[in-house]
Structure formats: structure tokens, C-alpha cells
Amino acid sequence: ISFQGEVEEIELQNKNLRQENEELKGTCASLQKQNIHLQEELQRKQELQNSLESLRSSKETLEQELNSLKKENAHLQELDECRVAELQQLKEQIQNVTSEKEHLENRLKTALDHMDQLQSQVLDYEKEMENLSQLDCDKTKQLESLKEENRELRVTGTQQQQNQDLMKELEEQKHLLQILQAKKTEADEKNQKLREENDELLRHLSQTTVVSSFSQAAVPAPGAGGLLFGNPYCAFKLTLFVQVSLRKCPMCDEVFPEAVGTEQYQAHVQSHLLECPLCSETFDKSNKQVFDDHVFCHGLE
């Protein structure tokens, strides 16, 4: 009986111990939860501490930034005052630009009106250009026909040049003849004066009975012409013979006697000339530039 009582007592103790154990387990679990909660709070406090330190450093940084911002704000206020003045200037400039814009719009309107007038003039000019183009075509056709006529005239150019040379030589001969005629007229006048003097001397001799030996020796006997002082036509005939027998170069005035052949005379005259190889026209060698310009004009045709 005592053993069974002890067993029951032990079982009761075990039961109580189990209950206490369960209570302790619950308490332990509660303590573990509290521990976890405290650790979490400690961690949060640590984080808060870190955050606080970070906030302190941020506060210092913010204070520095605040001071910098205050300085910038003061600078911005100064700039704002400057910008207000600039804004006033801009308003004045805008007003000026607006007035200038109105002026430019008026000028643009005038320019557009003038452009319309110019466009109408351009249309008129285009019509005139078309007319001029047509006229140019007509002129080109006329030029072609003139070139053809010029080619035909070149064929007869050599003969015309020869005719011009002959006419030039004829003019020179006429000029020489005029000189001879003038000398003949002068000789006739001198002959008339000599005749008058001869008649006067004859009248004087007929009135004088005594003739001095000096006068007889000084006065020659009348010649075949019956003139006291000889025939004045003899000197004129000699001069005429000399003039007719001489030929003068029309370029350098060199005189050629009759003994010089015609070929030599023509060769001398030709030495002063330059002949065009295209149209056979001749030019004075002393003015070579005119000859070069003439040949150049052939190259343009």
C-alpha cells in the first residue's frame, strides 16, 4: 500500500512537473518571443541610432547646404533685381521690335507690290526675249547668206585689188600730169614776160642809133624760134621729158628712171606690202597690226 501510494505520489509529482514543464515551456516560448522582440527592438534601436547619426550628419550637411542656399538666395535676389531691370529693357526692346515689325510689314507689302510689278515686267521681257530670239535667228540666216556672198566676193577680190593698184598708179600719173601742167603754165607766163621784155628791147634798139660793142656781145642772136633770148619751151620740154621718164614709188617716194624695168619697179613696190593669204588683199608693211587684225577676222568667220 505504501509503495502504491508512493507511485501515485510520484505520478502526481510527475504530473505536476509536467504541468510546470508545460508552463515553463510556455514561459520559455514567451521569453523566446520576448527575446526575439527585444532583439528586434534592439536592432531597430541600433538602426535608429545609425539613422540618428546619419540624420545628424545629414543635418550638418543640410545646414551647410542651407547656408549655401541662403547665399545663393541672396545672389539670386541680386540677380532677380538685375533681371527685373533686364526685363524692363526687354519690354522696351519688344516695343521697339514691334514697331519695327510693323514698319517691316509695311515695307514688305510695298516690296510685294513692287515684286508684282517686276513679275509683269519679267513677262514683258520674256516676250521681248522671244522676239529677240526670233530676230537673232533671222539675223543668223542673213549672216549665213552674207558669208556666202563674202565667199563669192573673195573670188573677185584679187581682180578688184589689181584694179585698185591700177587706179592708184593712174592717180599718181594724173598727179604728175597736174604738176607738169602747172609747170607748163608757169613757163608760159615766163615766156609771155620774156616776149614783152623782148618787144620792149626791140623798140628801144630801133630808137637807138648807136649800139655799144658790149651790148652786141652780150645779146645773143635770135634762134630758130625768132626770139631774142632763146626759146623758153626748150627748158620746159627738157623738164617734161625728165618728169615723164621717171617713176616714183608710192610708198617710200623713191624715184626710178626709165632704164629700170617694170618688173623691178613692181617688185620694189611689192616689198612694202603684205598680202592676205585668204583674200589677196594688200596692206602697208609699216602697219602690220592692221594686217594681223584682218587675218584674225578671217579666223572668226
From TrEMBL:
Transmembrane segments: none annotated. Gene3D superfamilies: 6.20.250.40. Signal peptide: none annotated. The keyword Ribonucleoprotein does not apply. It comes from the Eukaryota. Keywords: Coiled coil, Cytoplasm, Metal-binding, Zinc, Zinc-finger. It is found in: Cytoplasm. One of its GO terms (cellular component) is autophagosome. Residues 7-207 form a coiled coil. InterPro entries: CALCOCO1/2_Zn_UBZ1, UBA_autophagy_assoc_protein. GO terms for molecular function: zinc ion binding. Pfam families: Zn-C2H2_12 (PF18112). The keyword Zinc applies. GO terms for biological process: positive regulation of autophagosome maturation; xenophagy. Residues 247-272 form the UBZ1-type domain. Belongs to the CALCOCO family. This is CACO2 protein. It comes from Ceyx cyanopectus.
